[in-house]
Specification:
371 residues, 11 strands
Length: 371
């Protein structure tokens, strides 16, 4: 079952002070406070290159991520440039590809012990990203070479790959994501290379690791709770609700940053000009004022106003893609899998002096028996 490391802090007060990179950042913990701050972009600004992620990423990339590190009205204009690609998850031909992909991956691991992180989740998301970007599926092999995290440089530089992809797109444009950005304009001017890179960087950094976590958490959960898989098998119409509950309970992104342009009182804590505030997505998803028995996975939970895809203007562009993968996985587990056996699990623990949160797996060894 998921655990909530923020429960005590949320009950004692709405804010938890968390040290990051020499800065003490107040994390908002309550569902209502997080949603209100997410909507109030003038007080809690996203116009902060490198500082929206926590910890900040000045050492990891050289360009502003778009559109996430911008405010309205620019945010909406930037977003429109790439939204058609993120909505490809609703196209019948993409739905069929994802269905075939997950079917193939389940067959490839059936009846043997395997690492669900590297042999299942990473290949699924890397190959599915090629469908979203409309690039050759062979590119997925490059994405897989980066391992668990795109900034780890396990198999090469993300920025180097993106520069080469844009060079190819400019020389031989097609209909893919990279070509679309080389042809796009913002307020009647072409995009700069840094702006193109900003879109692509966020696509990989924000939309890859999160799906990997979602897939592995679902598999581990059903291995530990086979009765819930059987219940879902008996009521397959509940797959949509079950997917949303998994997003709530196993939120991959603990929090995200906002910057206060001026001195701001944040629930009794003074934040100086250009100081940061954390929107605690994971904490908000376990607020007992909104979710009954929040540490219990209730697959038919309804309503379920989780904030796993953010809230307000910056609602996650990749939400349709994530939902397609998770709902397809659940459908195939219900239809094709008889049992999942947990062999061993090496959980990933996110550590801060103010909290420790179990967040996904570094390794998850399973065995799947097909029906």
């Amino acid at each position: 079952m998921p655990t909530d490391p923020f429960r005590k802090a949320r009950e004692e007060g709405p804010v938890l002070k968390c040290p990051f990179q020499g800065e003490e950042i107040p994390m908002l913990l309550k569902h209502a406070d997080v949603r209100a701050a997410a909507k109030d972009w003038k007080t809690y600004s996203s116009d902060a290159p490198f500082r929206v992620p926590i910890p900040s990423e000045e050492e990891m990339r050289t360009m502003r991520q778009l559109p996430i590190e911008t405010n309205p009205p620019e945010h909406g204009e930037w977003r429109k440039l790439v939204e058609p690609f993120f909505l490809r998850a609703k196209k019948p031909e993409v739905i069929v590809k994802v269905d075939d992909l997950i079917s193939e991956m389940l067959a490839s691991v059936s009846g043997r012990e395997f690492d669900a992180v590297r042999e299942f989740a990473i290949p699924i998301q890397c190959r599915a990203l090629t469908y979203l970007l409309d690039v050759p599926e062979s590119e997925g092999e490059i994405f897989m070479s980066w391992g668990m995290h795109v900034f780890s440089d396990e198999g090469g530089s993300l920025e180097e790959y993106l520069q080469q992809a844009f060079d190819r797109a400019e020389a031989n444009p097609s209909d893919d994501f990279f070509s679309a950005l080389t042809k796009a304009t913002f307020r009647e001017r072409p995009l700069t290379r840094d702006e193109m890179m900003g879109f692509a960087n966020l696509t990989f950094a924000g939309g890859r690791d999160t799906i990997i976590h979602s897939i592995t958490n679902i598999l581990a959960y059903f291995a530990k709770h086979p009765i819930d898989l059987q219940k879902l098998r008996e009521n397959p119409k509940g797959i949509v609700l079950a997917g949303e509950e998994f997003f709530r309970a196993f939120m991959p992104l603990t929090h995200i940053g906002r910057v206060c342009p001026v001195t701001t009182d944040v629930q009794g804590h003074e934040v100086p000009p250009n100081g940061r505030v954390s929107l605690g997505w994971a904490a908000a998803n376990f607020d007992s004022a909104v979710f009954s028995n929040p540490e219990f996975v209730q697959l038919d939970r309804k309503p379920n106003p989780h904030v796993s895809f953010g809230f307000g203007t910056h609602l996650c562009l990749g939400a349709p893609h994530a939902r397609l993968i998770v709902r397809t996985l659940l459908t195939q587990l219900v239809e094709k899998v008889d049992a999942l056996e947990l062999i061993s699990a090496n959980v990933h623990v996110e550590k801060n002096p103010s909290y420790e949160r179990v967040n996904g797996f570094d390794e998850l060894r399973l065995k799947i028996e097909m029906r």
